[in-house]
Design a protein that fits this description.
There is one protein chain. The chain is an alpha+beta fold. The protein is about 40% helix and about 15% strand. It has one domain: 3-Layer(aba) Sandwich (NADH Oxidase). The protein contains eight helices and six strands, in the order H-H-E-H-H-H-E-E-E-H-E-H-E-H. Helix 2 (about 50-60) packs antiparallel against helix 6 (about 150-170). It is globular. The protein starts with about 20 loop residues before the first helix and ends in a 5-residue tail after the last helix.
């Protein structure tokens, strides 16, 4: 995190050292991949409650992500209040109406067709929790001094990946929801101008009749995403 004033490099012995055999490493990697293969983006949520402590632990895990200069340029708003979720849904659907009425363009809308999305966003009120992720474009100290954050999109993207993986490991499902534009979230969540909302994650348990788009299970084969130089 940012520290005002003069700072110095202070090396510590590696606190946690994990060394697996080659076989153990391969088995661990395969187990993790198989676990992530069971993760799905879900739009149909059960209204069943989820303890806040579970979400708090997942967000704490996200906060362990690496970041540019260790500034940790992110903020997470955890929302369970039904009235606040309803306001977010109303504002998001207003933006979506403009998006689907032509703001997106024909190519974008055609790309979304197999996903089955539309203006109505019931997941924003049905899911027991919403996590709104903000990227801190710059920081401000207690005395109002402004400082620069580094590699903000990359850092927030890594932290979001940590969060999604943590939610999955906790037996929950989520949806990466990005209404466009999202400036309304600053006002609704009381976040400063220095922060940019980048995503809403509805979180909870899947509804008994939950479905996923068939196209979502079509992943690129390894030879299309990997180039190795052994």
């Amino acid at each position: 995190m940012y520290t005002k004033g003069t700072v110095h490099y202070d090396p510590l012995p590696l606190p946690d050292r994990v060394r697996l055999s080659d076989d153990q490493a391969l088995a661990a990697a395969q187990t993790f991949r198989a676990d992530l293969a069971r993760r799905h983006s879900v739009r149909d949520f059960a209204p069943d409650p989820v303890p806040q402590a579970v979400l708090t632990e997942c967000i704490a895990a996200a906060g362990l992500a690496p970041s540019g200069a260790n500034h940790q340029p992110w903020h997470f708003c955890l929302i369970g209040d039904p009235a606040m979720k309803a306001r977010i849904r109303d504002a998001a659907e207003e933006e979506e109406r403009s998006f689907y009425a032509g703001g997106a363009g024909d190519e974008w809308l055609a790309a979304l067709e197999p996903i089955g999305t539309g203006v109505s966003k019931p997941h924003l009120t049905t899911a027991p929790w919403l996590i709104v992720i903000f990227a801190q474009r710059y920081g401000v100290t207690d005395d109002g001094t402004r400082y620069k954050n580094y590699y903000v999109p990359e850092s927030v993207g890594i932290a979001t990946g940590f969060l999604i993986a943590a939610l999955h490991r906790a037996g929950l499902v989520c949806l990466t929801h990005t209404p466009n534009p999202m400036k309304f979230l600053n006002t609704l969540c009381g976040r400063p101008e220095s922060e940019k909302p980048v995503m809403i994650l509805p979180v909870g348990h899947p509804a008994p009749d939950a479905t996923v788009p068939a196209v979502a299970k079509r992943k690129k084969p390894l030879d299309q995403i990997l180039t190795a130089f052994p």
